[in-house]
Amino acid sequence: MKFISIVLAASLMLSATACNAARGTTELTSVTAYESESKSDIEKLREKYPEYFKLSAFKGIEIYVWEMAEGSYQCGMMSGTNRNKTKEEIRALAEKPLTIEEAKLILKELGIGQGYFIVIPVVQPVSSYRYRIDDTYREKVRKLFD
Questions:
Q1: Is the separation of the CB atoms in 77 and 98 below 8 Å?
Q2: For residues 63 and 100, what is the distance between their CA atoms, to the nearest angstrom?
Q3: What does the alpha-carbon distance between residue 123 and residue 133 come to, in Å, rounded to a whole number?
Q4: pLDDT (tens digit, 9 = 90+) per residue, 44-87?
Q5: CB of 76 within 8 A of CB of 96?
Q6: Quick one: CA dihedral 76, 79, 82, 88, positive or negative?
Q7: Distances in whole angstroms, Cα of residue 65 to Cα of each of 11, 36, 117
């Protein structure tokens, strides 16, 4: 009986793969394949941004977000402290910016959820796009991490 179940499951997977191939898609149907692709993304991020995987969430994580063009955001992260960050520290984040999706993946990998980070909109000199930071804008940027 167990053998028949295994054969049936293998047949279904092969059938789904063949259907995808016939449609011209290369979509992977295996959960294991999805998990390994996700791991691959994390490993790439670890190589590109090792400093973000060393952040301490003891006093929270500060995520500084700036807009490069309408609807196009970049960000950088720092461990929370009992002091305000200097303009130089915030500007330095633009030297190696993250996309919002990359930041979310790193936070997820580190197990840092809502309540352990704060989103802070800033204007970076590297961007020629102009916007005003007010309460509405702060809320819009905060929602990028919901």
A1: yes
A2: 10
A3: 8
A4: 999 999 999 999 999 999 999 999 999 999 999 999 998 999 99
A5: yes
A6: negative
A7: 48, 29, 13
pTM comes to 0.72
Q: Which of 110, 117, 111 is nearest to 144 (CA)?
A: 117
Strands of the sheet containing 72-79, edge to edge, are 72-79, 61-69, 117-121
Q: CA nearest 60: which of 101, 109, 107, 129?
A: 107
Q: Is 114 helix (H, G, I), strand (E, B) or coil?
A: coil
Give CA–CA dist 120/92, Å, rounded. Answer: 15
**What is the 3-state secondary structure of 29-89?**
CCHHHHHHHHHHHHHHHHHHCHHHHHCCCCCCEEEEEEEEECCEEEEEEEECCCCCCCHHH
